[in-house]
Structure prediction request, 410 residues.
Amino acid sequence: MRRAHNPCPQHTHTFSISGDSECCTACYIEVDENENETVDRSDENDSNNDDPDHCWTQWSNLPDHILERIFSHLTIKERYYASLTCSGWYRAFYLPHVWSNFLVEDATLGRMRYNYYSGWQPVLDHARLQSCLLSVGHLIRGLDFRPQVSFNNMFQFMSLISWAMEQNARTAGCPREWVGCGSRIRSLNYLFPCNMAMSEDPESIKLFGTGGQLLAALKRLMLCLTNLHSLSLVDLFLERYEANHLLDEVLESCCLVLRRLCLVNVTNVHCPIMHIGLFLNLQVLVVSPQNIDDDVLMLLADSKVKHLTLLQNRYTPPALAISPCSAKAWLTVRRDNPKLRVHMCVESTTNAVILLQPEAPVASMIYQTPKTMVTINSRVFLSVCVCVASSACGSQFRYDNAVVGLAGIA
Prediction:
């Protein structure tokens, strides 16, 4: 057993991904069953180094824009290891677009710890997370939370990064090491794994919503993101009293800067979210049909929203259980906000039906379902849309990845 040569000894990061939390420098430990083979390979490499005709690869000389694309597809651990290969890739580790999206999963910056009831489980390592935020926290432009089972890891991650951003907002001055942490974050995505069915049947569904301390940590984080341009909250399934105050912090911090808002299945029952009509510069809105009503449409009629997508996924209540908005409200929207275009989309593995909205300025209907058949009512609805929409020639109807002009269906 020997220590491998560090190819870039003058460049070492301040956080360790694979070592102990007490060790803050990179260290490779190579174990070979046959020490003689190791010595032979080492001698062979030394001979190659002395060979003037040896051809070296040019991976270290790739352009920055290519390195950014490569590093952006790697996990945090893989980025760290790649940055240790040479000085050029070490510099690429800190390129701006490398950290355009920071994916947070159960095992992100965690260690495996044995649990008596669940076996080995990933547990967030606070030392790793703190060191990571100190190194690249000022470069992160997007946060993407995708928990599976370790909700406590998500809670602790959001709590720590929220605390770091709160240090920047202190009137008494921010500690030097936390200056700029999280200041460049422009997008936040949170996908809650609401289906807790343990069956192997892919169509089995057992829905559970979030809330409590996890929701409080999420709202605390949203309050700290004062320059948020895109927000996506999917499958939260909150209670009504929680859903009514979900966007209080976002409205306080991002009322003027938010451009895109995605709220899918905030609740499982009819519960209009009035806040979505109060963002002054919102342009793209994706929402489930059970979370809008006539009052929300009245607010959208006086807004700058250009694209409204009514999305139904596999967890959205059936169309028969949801009431569409009134035709009078849609006519008001068409009159006061003529640039608004409505897109209806259904995503499901079963026979799902789109909830039709009479008199809505529909620009497209998208079926991402393998078992759905287009009904006569849908064809008649599309024909009416062609007759009344001012931009019918440019409208599209998508079904099973095929694009058909609405005029052709009419």
